[in-house]
Design the sequence.
DNA sequence: CCCCTGTTCGTTTTT
DNA sequence: CGAACAGGGG
């Protein structure tokens, strides 16, 4: 292996450059702190990188520097991230900066790197190298089975809750024997601890690991097998960790073990992060890890990156002032050299959340008229229930938007079904996959048949597929089921055989066809079936780049996100959490009301720590803006169906007054002023001015008028106008499409006559409406 | 076995 | 108020 071979000295070019004291090109343009962070390769290093201070550039340049100076082979560098997105971004940049690589650095998420290590030493943690990685779905089903076996009432003790506890334990690095009695005793009247043991035992039988296990079993591997750990100590000369503030205890232990090859004060470990952007405490992240780094690694060098290249001075001032209210920070203050402070932050209080949506819509259109692209604008909300009103408003306006988040591609039912087939082909012992597809499509194999198979599997201690093989040779099954199962087993054997020679993307197509899955979708007249077929095509396309089935399955279980390659110009709507790491010229921060943001629940559950995390979220939100940040709050918002009034977020009071401009859409209803009514002077002359006269509303009306022509609003008149407008163009809707209507809500198209559509609305029943009144749902 | 109805519950999300 | 889910009935 190249890892241990002596490193050649840098080639001619760099040496000459050094003699002339010319720095390598890649250092050009870095500020002194960034340069320091790149060049300090030896010993522990903590880089505190504030928002927009060029963190990613430092990380990648640092790796490029190591490779360029031949400090290490590529494969001796370990770079860890939290998300696949960050990992692939890093890979891309390294490839750009270092065209010829001697061995690829290990770049990936904690989980993918752990999986890679575990596959090499699987036997040492009672797994086979081909072990399956379970997703949340499988996990829940497995837990349900255990609950049933233990006679635990699933209503009283939901599987999801236990999954959450398991996750929390694993995040804390706790094996079943390590769980404190108080913790394990809580669930199902003391059965929690036993369930954890049972769960782990079951995973071993299934030859499977869940996400938490990837880390936990890796830790166990290192602890119980010092010689294996030593191997990695020799291997990894340099370690880098991105977003260190997001690391949880298990990840921390994992890193500590890997860094133990040298005394702590000499470990070449570089962690990059920002304690002010730690927003994942609720899922186990320990800000403490970053706060403690200097004592964990004595003599660690600390470099602060505070020079911001993203936002205006006003934005930075606002963010810095708010975050300064937190205690227990390492302390950084962002600054910029740009003289112009830029627009002040705006804060607007409106009457209710509907008006907030109108306001945002209007402002977006205004900026758009000024030549800003929709892509450069984003609305960041605390929770996704806030998105709906925005979306509805934008539909009315005909404003193109994109929602980030939501259900992911690989979590869709049809994709999971297809994956289950593939898993079972690759891994005949994958019982969870077996159970998932045994009767999908319907084969007349109901609960009773499955129960018989399960019983045999238990008895014989074999996987379900093997149990099925045995059962079809006996007289225990009804003839019909026996034939069906015999054929199914034969099919799987056949597919497994083909998997050896056929590219995975062709295999999946054949499986879906031969299993009857495609026929099932074809027979399905529901709205979704067409989309499902397309998703499956997309799956096959995504598989084209994989040569082996195993390679694809590994990728899929670790990379659950789909890359949105949406080229159209659209405003982004997303949560503050998913906005971390992104930037936009204009950022709208809506719903800044106490209770919504900061979230009441956070404060109730986690007290002061909760509030501080919310404040960091505010900091993240504000620092997403390059040119302008527009904050709003509603006096009234509908929560759980009822209207509730609220006062502006306490974070509003924490904003620096001289960087903020308060405007008020004077409401006729009085309500709460800002800062004791200081904003009242901004009230409009006529407090009763109708909101329906706002530019946005007028435009919405104009849009609708354009779409339907200027004829009378009768069916007939409209029909004529439409047919003229559209010429020969046919309806852009199809039977079964899910659509949205302003008054009637969501519905499904039952029939189409010209532009007259019969729609079955979920709420309002079946109505005939004009195409121009609906939009795609 | 599927559909319908009643019930429950109501941040944030990755791997 | 409305989505999601479980359980019962047809």
Sequence:
């Amino acid at each position: 292996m190249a890892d241990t071979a002596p490193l050649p000295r840098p080639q001619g070019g760099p040496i000459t450059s050094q003699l002339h004291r010319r720095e390598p090109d890649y250092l050009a343009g870095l500020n002194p702190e960034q340069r320091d962070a790149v060049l300090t390769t030896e010993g522990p290093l903590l880089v505190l990188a504030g928002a927009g201070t060029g963190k990613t550039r430092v990380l990648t340049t640092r790796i490029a520097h190591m490779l360029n100076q031949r400090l290490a082979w590529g494969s001796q560098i370990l770079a860890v991230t939290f998300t696949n997105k960050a990992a692939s971004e890093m890979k891309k940049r390294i490839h750009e900066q270092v065209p010829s690589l001697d061995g690829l650095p290990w770049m990936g998420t904690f989980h993918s790197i752990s999986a890679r290590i575990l596959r090499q030493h699987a036997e040492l943690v009672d797994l086979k190298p081909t072990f399956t990685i379970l997703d949340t779905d499988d996990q829940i089903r497995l837990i349900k089975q255990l609950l049933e076996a233990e006679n635990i009432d699933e209503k009283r003790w939901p599987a999801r809750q236990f999954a959450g506890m398991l996750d929390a334990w694993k995040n804390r690095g706790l094996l079943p024997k390590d769980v404190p009695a108080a913790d394990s005793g809580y669930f199902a009247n003391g059965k929690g601890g036993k369930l954890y043991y049972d769960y782990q035992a079951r995973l071993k039988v299934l030859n499977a690991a869940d996400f938490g296990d990837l880390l936990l079993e890796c830790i166990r591997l290192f602890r119980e097998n010092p010689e294996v750990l030593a191997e990695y100590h020799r291997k990894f000369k340099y370690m880098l960790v991105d977003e260190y503030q997001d690391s949880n205890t298990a990840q921390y232990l994992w890193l500590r073990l890997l860094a133990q090859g040298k005394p702590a004060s000499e470990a070449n470990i570089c962690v990059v992060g920002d304690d002010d952007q730690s927003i994942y405490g609720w899922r186990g992240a320990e800000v403490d890890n970053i706060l403690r780094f200097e004592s964990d690694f004595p003599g660690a060098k600390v470099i602060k990156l505070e020079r911001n290249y993203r936002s205006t001075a006003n934005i930075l001032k606002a963010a810095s002032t708010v975050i300064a209210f937190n205690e227990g920070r390492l302390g950084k203050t962002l600054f910029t050299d740009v003289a112009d402070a830029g627009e002040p932050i705006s804060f607007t209080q409106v009457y209710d959340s509907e008006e907030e949506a109108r306001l945002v819509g209007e402002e977006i259109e205004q900026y758009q008229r000024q030549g800003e692209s929709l892509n450069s604008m984003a609305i960041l909300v605390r929770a996704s229930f806030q998105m709906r009103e925005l979306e509805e408003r934008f539909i009315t306006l005909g404003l193109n938007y994109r929602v980030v988040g939501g259900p992911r591609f690989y979590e869709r039912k049809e994709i999971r079904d297809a994956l289950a087939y593939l898993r079972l082909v690759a891994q005949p012992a994958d019982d969870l996959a077996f159970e998932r597809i045994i009767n999908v499509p319907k084969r007349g194999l109901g609960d009773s048949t499955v129960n018989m198979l399960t019983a045999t599997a238990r008895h014989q201690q074999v996987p379900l597929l093997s149990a099925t093989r045995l059962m079809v040779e006996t007289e225990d099954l009804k003839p019909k089921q026996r034939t069906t199962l015999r054929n199914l087993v034969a099919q799987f054997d056949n597919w497994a055989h083909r998997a050896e020679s056929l590219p995975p993307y062709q295999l999946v197509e054949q499986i879906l066809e031969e299993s009857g899955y495609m026929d099932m979708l074809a027979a399905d007249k529901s709205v979704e079936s067409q989309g499902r077929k397309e998703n499956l095509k997309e799956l096959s396309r995504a598989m084209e780049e994989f040569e082996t089935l195993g390679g694809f399955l590994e990728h899929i279980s670790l990379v659950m996100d789909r890359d949105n390659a949406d080229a159209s110009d659209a405003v982004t709507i997303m949560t503050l959490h998913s906005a971390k790491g992104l930037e936009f010229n204009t950022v709208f921060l809506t719903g800044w009301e106490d209770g919504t943001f900061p979230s009441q629940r956070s404060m109730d559950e986690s007290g002061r720590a909760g509030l501080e995390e919310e404040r960091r979220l505010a900091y993240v939100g504000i620092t997403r803006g390059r040119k302008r940040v527009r904050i709003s709050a509603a006096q009234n918002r509908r929560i759980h169906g009822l209207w509730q009034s609220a006062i502006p977020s306490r974070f509003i009071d924490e904003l620096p007054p001289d960087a903020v401009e308060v405007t008020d859409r004077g409401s006729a209803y009085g309500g709460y002023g800002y800062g004791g009514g200081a904003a009242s002077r901004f009230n409009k002359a006529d407090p009763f001015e109708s909101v329906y006269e706002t530019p946005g509303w007028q435009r919405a009306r104009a849009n609708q008028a354009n779409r339907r022509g200027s004829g009378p609003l009768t069916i007939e008149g409209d029909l004529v106008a439409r047919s003229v407008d559209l010429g020969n163009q046919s309806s852009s809707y199809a039977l079964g499409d899910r659509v949205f209507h302003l008054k009637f809500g969501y519905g499904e198209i039952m029939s189409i006559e010209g532009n007259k559509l019969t729609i079955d609305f979920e709420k309002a029943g079946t109505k005939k409406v004009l195409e121009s009144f609906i939009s795609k749902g």
